[in-house]
Amino acid sequence: MSQTILKYTIEDLESLRSKVPLVHNITNYVVMNNTANALLAIGASPIMAHAIEEVEEMVTICSATVINIGTLSEPWIQSMEKAAKKAVSLGKPLVLDPVGAGASNIRNAAIRRILDAGNPSIVRGNASEILSTLSSSGKTKGVDATDSSESAVETGKSLSKVTGGVVVISGATDYILKGTDSAQISNGDVLMTKVTGLGCTASALCGAFAAVQKDQFRAATSAMAVMGIAGELAKSKTSSPGSFQVAFLDALYELNADTIKQRLNAK
Amino acid sequence: MSQTILKYTIEDLESLRSKVPLVHNITNYVVMNNTANALLAIGASPIMAHAIEEVEEMVTICSATVINIGTLSEPWIQSMEKAAKKAVSLGKPLVLDPVGAGASNIRNAAIRRILDAGNPSIVRGNASEILSTLSSSGKTKGVDATDSSESAVETGKSLSKVTGGVVVISGATDYILKGTDSAQISNGDVLMTKVTGLGCTASALCGAFAAVQKDQFRAATSAMAVMGIAGELAKSKTSSPGSFQVAFLDALYELNADTIKQRLNAK
Amino acid sequence: MSQTILKYTIEDLESLRSKVPLVHNITNYVVMNNTANALLAIGASPIMAHAIEEVEEMVTICSATVINIGTLSEPWIQSMEKAAKKAVSLGKPLVLDPVGAGASNIRNAAIRRILDAGNPSIVRGNASEILSTLSSSGKTKGVDATDSSESAVETGKSLSKVTGGVVVISGATDYILKGTDSAQISNGDVLMTKVTGLGCTASALCGAFAAVQKDQFRAATSAMAVMGIAGELAKSKTSSPGSFQVAFLDALYELNADTIKQRLNAK
């Protein structure tokens, strides 16, 4: 398994860099700049566009759409619904990042509405967000909140059944789940939690890989591998969060087959 | 006084880092990323959320709310009013940063509406903004504009009487005022004025310290001390603003009792 | 010609740094922070304000207004129209950056509406955006899309006739065009395309120079010269995009008559 993930990650990154896919993002104000820069650094071409009048056109010209609910409001939710519906109708990859799921009613309602509009090919969040996303889907009852990885994995599998797509649970170990398939990436560094929006960047990278790799489970696995390895490369340069953010973008740009081989910790 | 501020700043920073308080921000588009990163770097946990449907929930789950009017529009003002009212009703710390007060009618009106909705436990701005905030409060007449620090201090004291809370006037020397209490922090570096949004960061740090230290005068003083010292540490690494911004975040993360002892210039 | 551009660029930069002009920006969420920091680094004073209630006041107190349609929506378009109209009525410099022109109907419509509200003294975009802007103006027929620089120049000249102002086409070589006048700047580095929003920064710098130099053709030429040289200075420090973005801001702050003399490649 580990050797397969290694091979796929290297191939997918090569493919991403040669195809330079357009990735459409409806994302939050906090991370727009970093997300766009991360997509450029890894080799994709970002478009950030949220107006309801243009989201369908943007979905159409892009190879994947990433929806992130970090700083939502009603007009943005409507655009997200429209984009999700269009992406699914065109059979294009759709990534959902349910930021802050569970923290407010409008976030839970937004998740429900987006899932109703179109099932994401990939949902990525932390354990708590994945749990709240499953609750918000309205397709489950009696979910117990928990922080343990094992329980999160069961929750993720349940959510995967609901959406029919991939679910990624980020953490010290990232779990990539779809149906009975699962992979684990244990790269990265705890300093990544001290920089805002690196989870959002992970979701954007899922979109970039999903744009060039039809197998969405494989695409999400490659994306999380690249995230974690870039985090380690950045940590090797600095131990403080300001310079880490800069070094992380550099690492996305610099990483190659050799660094992936040296560092990938997958199973 | 200087020894007391030193002791309190060190204690409050320790408390902040051990409690990791949730700080709710309704802030401007320009600084959202930096503000979130500054809060993470100092040891807090930021939430940026502005939708009117969720601000009350966010105020409730957070330990302090920071309102910054840098890029306002009518829907945001309504959310700010609602958040201010909720924070005051729950007895939670509320910080107001009246960015660009006096530059337009809508800014002055927004300040008036926010003050009417709930008195901030801390208002932080530069001399001109504090003056315009006092004018906008509708509780004063015949204020003369001035840039001298001494006059600004009198203005700040008047505003403190109006709000019943702390007023911080940022500048080469920061004045922290409440009723008859006052403190001065003379740390920092002029290069801080060449990076956008460091004033906004100061307000966010006031929120972080206010979240863990009930005495809002003491909290604001600790926040301004930490800001100024981090600015000096960053300046010791670089003399240009791009790398200064990065070094400043690193400094917030790295600063400790020793660096505070070495550098604090307070009275 | 080259010597004249050299002389003017140095003089205009000196003038900019001594006057510290207020530059009003209605720009996109992705680049607000970087744009504000670039304006500060070069020596201007940025104001980011988009509320329809205040844009006329902001145009009035500022020395130039920059409109950038990167992440537009209907309320923002209305503010842009109002700001454009006010700027032209006051005879103030107005810069338009038609980000993503041609990518959606609402972008093309927005460009048409802004041009109808007030002719920009400077339009800056890449070849494709300038072409779409000309199409959107409704003042031309049968424009053929092309990426060749020569054709782009003819398109730019046509757009200049429509607006009566300067048109800047960014690329490996930047073309600055107005009526029969033209200049070329061949500075910069390809790494600039791997950092989001450096085109937006170029437009903001056009605004800063336009604020202090009445001759808008000369102002735009100086701005593009400074952009390209700062890009080269940044490249001399790093070859990766994260640290490049930081080094670029440092370079804007550090560049002076000597570095301009050493590096300017203009004709």
From TrEMBL, chains A, B, C:
Pathway, per record: Cofactor biosynthesis; thiamine diphosphate biosynthesis; 4-methyl-5-(2-phosphoethyl)-thiazole from 5-(2-hydroxyethyl)-4-methylthiazole: step 1/1
GO biological process, one term: thiamine biosynthetic process
Keyword Repressor tagged: no
Catalytic EC class: transferase
A Pfam family the protein falls into: HK
Obligatory cofactor(s): Mg(2+)
SUPFAM superfamilies xrefs: Ribokinase-like
Keyword set, alphabetical order: ATP-binding, Kinase, Magnesium, Metal-binding, Nucleotide-binding, Thiamine biosynthesis, Transferase
Catalyzed reactions per annotation: 5-(2-hydroxyethyl)-4-methylthiazole + ATP = 4-methyl-5-(2-phosphooxyethyl)-thiazole + ADP + H(+)
Function noted in UniProt: Catalyzes the phosphorylation of the hydroxyl group of 4-methyl-5-beta-hydroxyethylthiazole (THZ).
Stated name of the protein: Hydroxyethylthiazole kinase
Species, as recorded: Leptospira bouyouniensis
Gene name in the database record: thiM
